[in-house]
C-alpha cells in the first residue's frame, strides 16, 4: 500500500506492485502513507491496533477487488459495495467459497456489478 519508491508505469516496483494509491492520481489518500510511516513507531498496543484498524478500513473501502486465490484457512467475507449476488445462506446457489478456484469460479458468472452513483 505504500507509495514509498513509487515508480512510473513501465518501471519495475518492488513495493506496492499493484500501484494502489498512486500519489499523482486525483484520488490519492495521503493518510495511507501517514499510517504506513507511523505504525512501525507505535509502542502502545491499543494505539497500534487503532492504527491498523484505520488502515484496514481505508483499504477495504477503497480497493474494490475480488480474491481470486484459494485459501482454505481464510474466512469467506465479502462486501456488496461493488458486486452483488454473492452466495449466502439466503442465496445458496454455491457454497461460500473464494471465487477464483474450483467450484468457486462459477461465482464469477453469477455476481453482478453494483451501479455506482455519479
What does it look like?
The protein has helices spanning 30-38, 45-62, and strands at 83-84, 112-113. The chain is built from two helices and two strands. The protein is 23% helix and 3% strand. It has 118 residues and is mainly alpha-helical. The chain folds into two domains: 1-63, no CATH class; 65-118, no CATH class. Helix 1 (30-38) packs antiparallel against helix 2 (45-62). Strands 1-2 form a two-stranded antiparallel sheet. The mean pLDDT is 84. The longest helix is centred in the middle third of the chain and has 18 residues, at 45-62.
Number of strands: 2
Number of domains: 2
Please state how the strands of the largest beta sheet are arranged side by side: 1-2
Helical residues, percent? 10-25%
Taking all Cα atoms into account, the compactness measure Rg is: 17 Å
The number of helical runs is 2
**Could you state the order of secondary-structure elements as H and E?**
HHEE
In terms of per-residue confidence, which ranges show pLDDT below 50 for 5 or more consecutive residues? none
Question: End-to-end distance, in Å?
Answer: 26 Å
Specify the structural class. Answer: mainly alpha
- Overall mean pLDDT stands at 84
Provide the β-strand percentage band: under 5%
> Looking at the structure, what is the overall shape?
globular
Mind describing the biggest β-sheet?
Answer: 2 strands, antiparallel
